[in-house]
Design a protein that fits this description.
It is a single chain. With 1249 residues, this protein is an alpha+beta fold. Helices cover 46% and strands 16% of the residues. It has 41 helices and 37 strands. It has a 9-stranded mixed β-sheet, sandwiched between helices. The chain has a 9-stranded antiparallel β-sheet with strand order 19-18-30-29-28-27-26-25-24, sandwiched between helices. It has a 6-stranded antiparallel β-sheet with strand order 3-2-4-13-5-11, with no helix packed on it. Strand 18 and strand 19 form a beta hairpin. The termini are far apart. 44% of the residues are buried.
């Protein structure tokens, strides 16, 4: 009942009477006819029949339904598009041609042995594409099936799914619900049609936007009012511009102009308003949010792109050996084969039927061409057909491991990391630059009251993590101290400060240690200081200033008290335009100044009266409200108390407030400035509080001017209001400052620190103002106090002139001077940070300036871009990617981040509280930012190494196998005989060598996950491409060449002169092929055993099981009837199995083939070890319990943490230096005080007897 009463009371407030500036200003006379002039012209031809959606089901007013689709395929396009995607790959296209040639007599193998592997490979890849697109379809289904109240008839509203909404539908959206489409606001729960809208999902801004309906539609505030409602909207056509809207509403035979103030955009959320009524103007793909999104581009990892070049290299080898075979065959045919009578080669007199086209001496060119085509198919095993499908399978299994990692599960949201595509797993291990959004990505969208400075004294004793870590590092006493700027009351303040300093300490082994408070935190209020809490502020000095400070906090706002039946205490909740105001109201309530009610012109506060020691209710009359704006950077209210005194209470940016202080109002300015610097270093957002008392006559004169300015209609209205505010907002008295924390998500500083130690650079791109972005930069350790900051911004003169050339010259000059300074100071190892706002960035990204801007930005340790639009985010990402050539990762949580996420090499979406747009456009989704650390440093490192090793091994085994066919062709004088049976060839890639390589790609680890996090510099193997460099690729190709030579030559020269069987028979081609094939299978599987660092039972089963599978296959294949098994009938049992030579050759060939690689790894690990080799050796020699205390282990761990200028560790290092300097200065000061004291002088002057 109380809650309902509160809502009714809240609904009666006419907020339009409180506000003075642009958000609710009336349309000017110049603006009104502008819309009417363009309506009906091209680009402004849309007609909407309100409450008559049936008219939009047929032409000419038929508009799309409200459903959206982010899928890549549909039922009709899947087959052609998926096949096109598959045969874009060089290897797949080659094997398609080979399969086509197998339909003719040109192929040396049977049709089934060529077509079956191709169908299997392409089928698996297409199945994976279908599954991934199905998941996208399910996500679309979830969004499209959301429901909203829609009007059907006679004032009845029923639940209707979003996808079924039509243009013209009237809908009712309740508090905290998303708008299902672009709506025209008709009315709201407030009498004057105002509603609060959160657009963070569109533009990243946390402050609430105020929308207002037309006065003509205010009457439509109940369900029943819509039974007879009819109107027509004529407006602009669908477009992506979020901030413009032109149209007219024709209602009750009158035409009313529309503006963006009446448009509610899809994916924004209704806040602080019980409900609104609206009519659908744009639906589905016509909405501005969807128009701003683009379809997810097809992304390929660097390794996959490099694989194409490897395929080209292998194809070049294939062409080369095919040419050798073709030319060699022609030469032998011309000079030698014609003399071999037993070949019975055709001659010119032979008939067409007897003609052998491959060996025709009279048609050498034809024979050479046919032999070339045949060789291309024969040696095709140089190109691994199963490479792509094996990688697809491996990547899917890798994503399953990532998705199931318990360390990537967030218990708070009950969500885990999700890999939405498997194409970019290995790319996670090669990231060099991260571009991050702020709101909702790094921060929680929650403000907490943390500290304040009142009358020159700082309050709030909760020490920062940086100070705590620095104190622990120094292993010494650390005492936070303040000093008074006011000499008149030194004794009292010194006592207060002493109490504060000892409260944060605990004795441990003789050393003082700073302690973090573990007391429960009130939401929005994380403040600890006994001097103010529990009404203890009444014992402080300057009680009147403290009281006035709390009054400013309780009165200077636009908040609304909300009663909640669930609250068992007398504490209230609040709603306001910004989360800062909510935190101020909660804080004032905790300090004893509870704002509990407001009317149109009155504010009621329960204040604790120090004189009576009781709580009293006081009533303040609200005379005027001068609202906050980005240009004013301040907010003021003018109130009168019960005694008739008039006060102006002001809060705003410290620079703005300090400029407006009276000469006698600067008493605490110096001390407050020091506190501001300290709060800024802690990453807190600060606002200064000030006030002045106004005489009644002065107020009356000013109010007359201000009222006239408010009543002005025209372009000069803003200027007149600003001039009026300047007249009254002056001669202020400074009370102090408040510091609130834009609360970071859990683990953000630690995550950024680890990523920085791994060598990644992090840029912050936000739509928030500069001060907010800088504060968050400090909070998450992207900035530090000793960092030199370059600020790029346009001067007011350049902005007002709007001359692009002049603006370019100004920004260019700033960039050049900053870069010159950076180069001059480059040897000092001083960190540099670059901060640039949106307008300056717009100029800096222009063609003439962008290269110099990027040169400066890339060389800075930290870059923060503020007031950035969604398109600018995407443009920055694209330019950074192009300019640096580095792998970029973009991470965000809202629809305004979609462009950036899609433009980056890897897009990561935060599945937080602000919808699913970023997630649906992303490649990976995270519950919170902190999981990025493990995703990159652990899984990224593993996946990069796994895929690299996998591709290298694939190249090796196929070269080793394919070249044995070529050597046999040379050995047999290009006779065209095939060494191996057709089914041997088919089984090689599909069964006998596929499982070990899949196990390698899924389970390989150079080090464990804990070691990856302890040694973050291991991650740099990916960006430096250590495991997939061209030297490694060529090395493994040469290894395959050597292996193939050893296998073939050993088999030929051992078997040729030696009897294989007891009856004296030598090995025929079938025996030679089977023995050689056995050596290949043993060698390539033993090679992967040497190549593997981390063994599980799965690896052992796959490697030794594959070798066993060969014998099982040979046994089973030989057991088939002769018409099926051919010459391999009983080959293992009767021919090669009983022969000792067969087993001896196998052992000898395997040992000799692997000897070069074994020697290589021995030399490398002994004399040129890599980082992971050293760690592996230490792990083997050290027990797990001894690692933390072992000096060698700790030394290597410190060495692995790359030197960085950003991150928590870097700030701690800087703070240690600062503390050391402070302690040294303190020692010098004490020494001077002692030596200058009269007692010391008397002692030193008096000789001892």
């Amino acid at each position: 009942m109380a809650a309902a009463t509160s809502r009714r009371r809240k609904g009666k407030i006419r907020w339009s009477n409180l506000y003075s500036f642009a958000c609710l200003r009336p349309l000017t006379s110049e603006e009104r006819p502008a819309g009417r002039d363009v309506i009906g012209q091209p680009g402004f031809s849309r007609v909407v029949f309100c409450n008559e959606p049936h008219l939009h089901k047929r032409k000419p007013y038929k508009y799309p339904y409200n459903n959206i689709s982010t899928t890549k395929y549909n039922v009709l396009t899947f087959l052609p598009r998926a096949l096109f995607e598959q045969f874009r790959r060089v290897a797949n296209f080659y094997f398609l041609l080979a399969a086509v040639f197998s339909l003719f007599s040109l192929a040396p193998f049977s049709r089934a042995s060529l077509i079956a592997p191709l169908v299997f490979v392409v089928g698996i890849s297409m199945l994976k594409e279908a599954v991934e697109d199905w998941h996208r379809f399910l996500q679309d289904l979830d969004v499209n099936n959301r429901t909203v109240k829609a009007h059907v008839s006679n004032g009845v509203f029923v639940d209707k799914s979003w996808k079924k909404l039509l243009v013209g539908d009237v809908v009712k959206v309740n508090k905290d619900e998303y708008f299902p489409s672009d709506l025209l606001l008709l009315s709201s729960s407030y009498e004057d049609g105002v509603c609060y809208v959160e657009t963070m999902n569109l533009d990243g801004e946390t402050n609430l936007k105020i929308k207002r309906c037309l006065e003509a539609s205010l009457c439509l505030n109940e369900d029943e009012e819509f039974s007879q409602f009819k109107a027509t909207v004529r407006c602009e056509d669908p477009n992506p511009n979020l901030y413009t809207f032109v149209g007219n509403l024709e209602f009750k035979k009158e035409s009313y102009p529309l503006s963006p103030s009446q448009l509610l955009l899809r994916d924004s959320k209704l806040r602080n308003t019980d409900y609104i009524y609206g009519v659908v103007i744009f639906s589905g793909r016509d909405t501005k949010a969807v128009r701003n999104s683009t379809r997810s581009p097809s992304k390929r990892s660097r390794i996959e792109r490099k694989m194409d070049y490897i395929i080209y290299l292998l194809f070049s080898m294939l062409v080369l050996v095919s040419l050798v075979s073709s030319i060699g065959s022609s030469l032998f045919l011309k000079h030698d084969m014609v003399d071999w009578w037993y070949l019975q080669l055709p001659d010119s007199s032979s008939s067409e039927e007897d003609d052998d086209h491959f060996f025709n001496p009279s048609k050498l060119v034809q024979s050479a061409v046919l032999q070339f085509i045949r060789a291309l198919i024969l040696y095709g095993y140089l190109i691994p057909i199963s490479l792509y499908v094996s990688i697809e399978v491996v990547k899917v299994l890798q994503t399953m491991l990532i998705n199931k990692d318990i360390e990537l599960y967030d218990e708070v949201t009950c969500k885990s990391v999700q890999a939405r595509t498997s194409n970019l797993n290995e790319e996670l291990g090669q990231v060099e630059m991260i571009l991050s959004d702020k709101t909702g990505t790094l921060t929680c969208n929650q403000m907490e009251f943390r500290k304040c400075s009142i009358a020159g004294i700082s309050y709030g004793g909760d020490i920062t993590e940086v100070d705590l870590a620095a104190s622990m590092r120094m292993n010494a006493d650390f005492e936070p101290f303040e000093f008074s700027m006011d000499e008149t009351d030194r004794a009292t303040r010194s006592f207060e400060l002493y109490e504060f300093s000892v409260s944060g300490f605990s004795a441990q082994n003789g050393n003082a240690r700073l302690l973090k408070s573990e007391e429960p935190v009130i939401k929005g209020f994380n403040f600890r200081d006994d001097r103010l809490m529990n009404k203890n502020w009444i014992n402080g000095t300057n009680l009147s200033d403290i009281t006035m400070f709390f009054r400013v906090m309780a009165l200077c706002h636009t908040g609304i008290p909300i009663e909640d039946d669930s609250h068992k205490t007398d504490k209230l909740s609040y709603e306001a335009e910004s989360p800062e105001e909510v935190s101020f109201l909660i804080a004032s309530q905790e300090f004893g100044f509870q704002f509990f009610r407001r009317t149109q012109s009155l504010i009621f506060v329960k204040e604790f009266d120090p004189s009576s020691m009781k709580e009293v209710e006081r009533e303040y009359k609200l005379l005027n409200l001068l609202e906050f704006s980005s240009s004013r950077k301040r907010m003021s209210v003018i109130v009168s108390n019960e005694d008739g005194q008039i006060f102006l209470l002001c809060k705003g940016a410290d620079s703005i407030i300090f400029d407006r202080l009276a000469d006698n109002g600067r008493t605490y300015e110096q001390a407050t400035t020091l506190h501001l610097s300290s709060y800024a270093e802690d990453g807190l957002r600060t606002l200064a509080f000030a006030y002045r008392e106004i005489e009644a006559a002065e107020y009356e004169r000013w109010n007359t001017i201000f009222t006239q300015a408010k009543a002005t209609i025209g372009p000069e209205r803003e200027e007149l209001l600003e001039q009026a505010s300047e007249m009254i907002e002056k001669d202020l008295v400074l009370l102090g400052v408040v510091a609130v924390e834009d609360k970071l998500q859990k683990g953000v500083p630690e995550c950024i620190d680890k990523l920085a130690q791994a060598g990644l650079k992090i840029w912050l791109l936000t739509g928030d103002k500069r001060e907010t972005a800088i504060n968050v930069g400090f909070a998450c350790s992207l900035l530090r106090q000793d960092m030199m900051q370059f600020h790029l911004s346009l001067s007011r003169e350049a902005e007002s002139n709007s001359q692009v050339k002049a603006m370019e010259e100004e920004i260019l000059q700033q960039i050049q001077s900053s870069y010159k300074l950076l180069c001059e100071e480059g040897n000092n190892e001083a960190p540099y940070g670059l901060i640039i706002d949106g307008k300056a960035l717009e100029i800096a990204l222009r063609q003439d300036v962008k290269d110099e801007f990027l040169q400066l930005a890339v060389n800075c340790a930290s870059v923060i871009c503020c007031r950035v639009s969604p398109k600018q985010k995407a443009l920055i990402t694209r330019l950074v990617k192009q300019y640096t050539g580095r792998t970029t990762l973009a991470i965000g949580d809202g629809a305004n981040d979609v462009g950036m996420i899609q433009e980056a090499d890897i897009g990561v979406g935060i599945s937080g509280m602000e919808g699913m747009q970023a997630v649906m456009a992303s490649d990976f989704s995270l519950p919170q930012f902190r999981f990025l650390e493990r995703l990159l440093v652990v899984h990224g490192h593993w996946c990069y190494q796994r895929i690299s090793k996998m591709v290298l091994y694939f190249v090796y085994k196929n070269v080793a196998f394919g070249l044995t066919l070529f050597y046999y062709e040379l050995y047999t004088s290009f006779s065209g005989e095939v060494l191996y049976d057709d089914w041997y060839m088919t089984m090689f890639n599909v069964m006998l060598t596929s499982l070990p390589v899949i196990a390698l790609g899924v389970l390989e680890q150079d080090v464990s996950s804990d070691i990856c996090l302890q040694f973050p510099a291991l991650y740099q193997q990916g960006p430096r491409n250590v495991h997939f460099s061209w030297s490694r690729i060529v090395g493994w190709i040469l290894n395959g060449v050597v292996t193939s030579l050893v296998i073939f030559l050993a088999n030929i020269y051992i078997l040729s002169p030696t009897a294989l069987q007891q009856n004296g028979f030598v090995a025929d081609i079938d025996s030679l092929g089977a023995i050689t094939y056995t050596c290949v299978i043993w060698t390539v599987n033993c090679q992967i055993a040497l190549f593997t660092s981390h063994f599980t039972w799965i690896q052992h089963l796959s490697i030794w099981g594959s070798i066993l599978l060969w014998y099982i296959f040979l046994l089973g294949y030989g057991a088939l009837p002769p018409n099926l098994s051919g010459n391999t009938f009983q080959l293992l049992i009767e021919v090669i199995g009983p022969t000792p030579l067969y087993w001896m050759i196998t052992v000898l060939v395997v040992v000799v083939s692997l000897l070069p690689y074994f020697v290589h790894i021995v030399i490398q690990r002994s004399f040129y070890p890599m980082d992971d080799h050293i760690i592996q050796e230490m792990e083997k020699r050290l027990k797990k319990d001894d690692m933390r205390d072992n000096q060698m282990w700790l030394r290597e761990q410190r060495n692995s943490q790359m030197s960085t200028n950003v991150g928590f560790s870097a700030r701690v290092e800087a703070k240690v230096v600062s503390f050391s300097q402070q302690m040294q200065q303190k020692k010098v000061s004490i020494c001077r005080s002692v030596t200058n004291s009269p007692i010391y002088r008397s002692i030193t002057r008096t000789p001892f007897s």
